Structures
1.
Amino acid sequence: MNFYREILRPILFLLPAEAAHNLTLQLLRSLQPNSRLLNLLFGQPISLPLEFCGLHFRNPVGLAAGMDKNASAIPAWEALGFGFVEIGTITSQPQAGNPKPRLFRYPHKQALVNRMGFNNDGCELVAKRLQKLYSSKKPNIPIGINIGKLKSVPNAEAPSDYLKCYKKLYDYADFFVVNVSSPNTPGLRSLQSATELERILVALRSWEAPPKKPLWVKLSPDLTPEDALAATETAALCGANAIVATNTTLDHDALLPYEDQEGGLSGSPLREKAVAMLKLLIRNSKLPVVASGGIMSPEDAAERMRLGASLIELYTGLIYSGPSLIREILNYRQKPPSENKTD
Ligand SMILES: Cc1cc2nc3c(=O)[nH]c(=O)nc-3n(C[C@H](O)[C@H](O)[C@H](O)COP(=O)(O)O)c2cc1C
């Protein structure tokens, strides 16, 4: 029996989406001291180890940013079998985010729309939480910290705002992700332009003494190919080590005619754009790519890896399929190609 799909999901889907999200985090927090119970309910983690950016990953399937913005359930994600976790987005001060409701499910389309707006506890509190966690037990998987800009800070001051977060959280990150692609902070996505991105990355990299931590830049699927390649080139020149492709999209065409909501669209309707961006970057840029966006099945994951993604990340797929999706992806990858339909 699949505990998530048959029992938990039907209950969670009776609740408004954000209430279900909060209840899930609460449940994970209360279960995480007992990783055996989590394994009993959701299955055993699978190892498919690899090295990337000088880090050791248990397997290539990670948790995408936004699911655990405040680093409250890291031991649970590890027990559920993720190969790495990206927490955040975290900002330099606590932020409430946009008014509720701000998260919506579209089950017929296997999609979500969110306009959360970087609701998070702020870097100070998250740093304390991570310090406490690491002093009792350091996770055995890489922990990435995704950082963003406060809504109240103008873009001109973005570099110092990102730097505040970077400094405060530096000791607790195995790698950082610079998020310049969320559609829910007005003007944030213009930080993907070569000049703006350079100012941010130079501020971070020039503060840091060697050996520098792996730094990834997360891009929007809505960039033109020219702008995406310019951002990637700038990222590479400024010492970034990978691109996360992609964040959510503002293009809701694939969602019509369902009742629409403003915000970033994720899940199945994002697949095509995220795959197009991955292909573009793999063909034309030097930086490796971490694939995110519309990875809903083992076939989707296999396609991204075949196209050249170094790692993959899940968010919406986890909501619809539950944690067994991680194992299904890894089992699918381990089978000889003849046994996999699309390989
Ligand atoms: C509710 C929600 C909140 C998100 N919050 C963040 C965030 O804070 N920072 C970020 O970089 N991405 C955020 N994302 C984007 C995801 O990390 C991911 O890149 C995107 O949803 C595409 O992947 P998916 O189709 O597997 O969901 C969020 C996504 C959702 C659905």
2.
Amino acid sequence: MTIKAVNSGTAMRRLAHAYSAADADLIDEVFASFSPISDAPCRSTAGSFDSLVSGPNGGVARTRRRSTMTKVTAQMSVSLDGFYAGAQHLGDGNWIDSAEAAGFFRITRWVTDAMAWRERQGFAGGEQDTNSDIIAESFQAAGAYVMGRRMADGGEGPWGDNPPFRAPVFVVTHRPRQTLVRQGGTSFTYVTDGIASAVEQARAAANGKDVAVAGGGRLVRQVLKAGLLDELELHVVPVVLGTGMRLLDADLDLAGKEAIELTPTRVVHTPHVTHLRYTVNGRSALVLDDRGSGTGSVAGRVTDPAA
Ligand SMILES: NC(=O)c1ccc[n+]([C@@H]2O[C@H](COP(=O)([O-])OP(=O)(O)OC[C@H]3O[C@@H](n4cnc5c(N)ncnc54)[C@H](OP(=O)(O)O)[C@@H]3O)[C@@H](O)[C@H]2O)c1
């Protein structure tokens, strides 16, 4: 099977329009126009409306219509070596001058260049391209956000009186604080009784839309570890930082023969970043089978990526 990619801004805009109009025929038409950019073997996911996985005859298989149920999603930009920011800033000094910030701003350059993000932030200009469409799509999908306290503290100044979220934000922290109400529908509610509570409060506030876990990495890791995440999207930036704050690390507390399995549902390639979307299947045991010996049945295995 072949992952197909959304590699045109026009197609993304048409798809967004088709989603919002719930126009199934248009959705099919736009899907059919996508061009393959990757021949990576891929399991077709039972059940993802967003899946751009071609069927056996080369046509697009769409196995389930997007449910109106709230999903818990997370998106993180990472370097090729898996870091979501540079080495953590500790102690005195300005965060903005730190290695943490330098790494973070390099990895998220595609975001700050994008018109959809700049518009939300009140900045002029920007690129109107596929990356911008992806940001617009994620703003559109989110009905509420969950955020770690470090990210919320770091953004409080730069986001200003009219933050880009335009939805309730639930900040996970050990430090109680009065709710901040900002312009444009954004509020910051500080949740001190754990991530599950924050996710549930966000779900109740999301009005049927998705709960977006906005970062930082510590929070995303915990939500993944706790089995609360339905969908993970990594925006992989072609830069190697060598050191920094790693997203998927030992804090996930996986046992020796345990893994978290995911199913890829979308790949969008652009020159500055590759967007990889996964459904999170959950924890599973790592079982030694007979593959290594070259014997045993191959039934059910993908032997021909083009098949
Ligand atoms: N690359 C990207 O896409 C991306 C996206 C977002 C952010 N970032 C970057 O990520 C960095 C921040 O991430 P981070 O991993 O350091 O921190 P974080 O996840 O934003 O926040 C961690 C803080 O959240 C609170 N927290 C987390 N789990 C908790 C729990 N179970 N119960 C209570 N409180 C809990 C704690 O706050 P208290 O200390 O108050 O208890 C903890 O110190 C920044 O550099 C930011 O710029 C990158």
